Amino acid sequence: MTYHLEFEKQIVELEAKVLELQSIDKGGVNLDEEIAKIREKAERILVQTYSKLTPEQKVQVARHPDRPHFSNYAKRLIQDFTPLAGDREFGEDAALIGGLGRFRGQSCIVLGQEKGHDTPSRVKHNFGMPKPEGYRKAQRLMAMANQFGLPVITLVDTAGAYPGIDAEERGQSEAIAKSIESCLRTEAPLVSVIIGEGGSGGAIAIAAADRVFMLEHSIYSVISPEGCASILWRSATFAKDAARALKLTAQDLKQLSIIDGIIEEPMGGAHREPERTIDVVGDYIEKALHELGSLEGSVLKTRRRQKFLEMGHAV
């Protein structure tokens, strides 16, 4: 069953009407003109709706269950992808997947959070919320990339790091901090794309990169709107106000120089044309890696660290 957002209701109804008219026995009656009018109206409303999404609506689009996830990107963009498991300290974390592969002919390390696409896979991947062992696995992969001079691609899609007691007992905050440090210390090119949600330290742990891109309707913030609302207003019902105040949209963050670029999505969001979205993301990554590939590792590390140090002054 396809999932639809509330603000898309009129569009969905029109599209359903088109399918209904196309499937009925027309009995010699030509309905092509009527179908064309309805399709044109649906397209017009779709453009009007997605050209002026509110921050709250962008949050909904970023969380759309049909939006392409890490596994979809890895399958389409990475050849011979070989996942590497475990942090060599505690165990494996299925919420953060990473390994070796070839991106358009170039060997690389790729990693990112996987949310899952149905109930069993969401439970398996802990809804894309990594525990300490996930971030320690990321550190291990960063070290491998540094050792062998392999570029790193990270695809971010998480509501945040797992906040459970067991994660805190195993040093969640330390693991995140060390993961950020690993990003900043590596001398390999590092490109990150926010493909859905970029939640708090759980996201920046693998996104302290040379180039940080966001899909047009993705979000990136220090806390979820619901979490922010529960702290400031003591109620998650104020999430709409929090979404506006957090400046979490790609457009806000580009204006604040927090990210390096915005990747345009197909009209109606990435969930409507996932393969096209993935291919465009691949083009951005390829261009960035080409630009970074000519720089010495020490230069990359210095520039990357300086980039993040300057953000506080810019804001």
- Give the radius of gyration: 21 Å
Average of per-residue pLDDT values? 92
SSE series: HHHHEEEHHEHHEHEEHHHEHH
CATH class category name of the largest domain: Alpha Beta
- What is the share of helical residues? 40-55%
Query: Structural class given helices, strands, pairing?
Result: alpha/beta
Estimate what percentage of residues fall within beta strands. 15-25%
Please mark out the parts with pLDDT under 50 across 5 or more consecutive residues, or reply none: none
The name CATH uses for the topology of the largest domain is 2-enoyl-CoA Hydratase, Chain A, domain 1
CATH architecture annotation of the largest domain = Alpha-Beta Complex
Contiguous helical run count: 14
Silhouette = globular
Let me know the number of strands.
8
Main beta sheet: 8 strands, mixed
The CATH homologous superfamily name of the largest domain equals 2-enoyl-CoA Hydratase, Chain A, domain 1
The tally of structural domains comes to 2
The termini sit apart by: 44 Å
Per-chain topology:
Layout lengths: L8 H15 L8 H19 L4 H8 L7 H8 E6 L12 E8 L2 E8 L5 H6 L7 H17 L3 E7 L6 H5 L2 H14 L4 E10 H5 L6 E5 L3 E3 L3 H8 L6 H7 L4 H6 L5 E3 L10 H19 L4 H18 L1
Helix pairs in contact: 1-2, 4-13, 6-8, 10-11
Brief sketch in words of this structure:
With 315 residues, the protein is an alpha/beta fold. 49% of the residues lie in helices and 16% in strands. The protein has 2 domains: 6-52; 58-314, 2-enoyl-CoA Hydratase, Chain A, domain 1 (Alpha-Beta Complex), CATH 3.90.226.10.
